[in-house]
Amino acid sequence: MKNLIFRLTHITGTILAFFLIGTVTTVQGQDSETNEKAIVRSADNDKLEWGPCPAFMGDGCNITVLHGNPEEPNADILFRMKGNTSVPRHWHNSPERMVLISGKMRVNYDGQEAEVLQAGDYAYGPTERPHTATCLSDDPCVLFIAFEDPIDAMPGAKTED
Asked: Which CATH superfamily is domain 51-155 in?
């Protein structure tokens, strides 16, 4: 009987310890989440720091990071193209979730019909799917892009290993 009581006490103590660890972890996670500040960014804000696109894309485009670290998962950027310009065929290791903020843009993913995006349209680009983009408007095209994985852009078609 003493052995049974000892086992039950030990099992109850172990369950209680896991419960407390889980509660402390949850509370700590909530504290760190509540300390993160909400942000708002506007595509036409003068304080955005626009940098060049990868060299193979030419001088007609720029990017700025809105949130996150481009070298880590889950970064959000704005991609801006001059009016009436194109970026050559390229692909990304990450899927892209996009919303066109301004302009009119044609995107053409390999193996699919070209699509024309109007301001406010959502688009999804699959992982490693080569594509091109053309800003069809005279004014710049600005595209919000959310990447799941670190941001990259590879020229041409994906080569198989």
From this structure: Jelly Rolls (2.60.120.10)
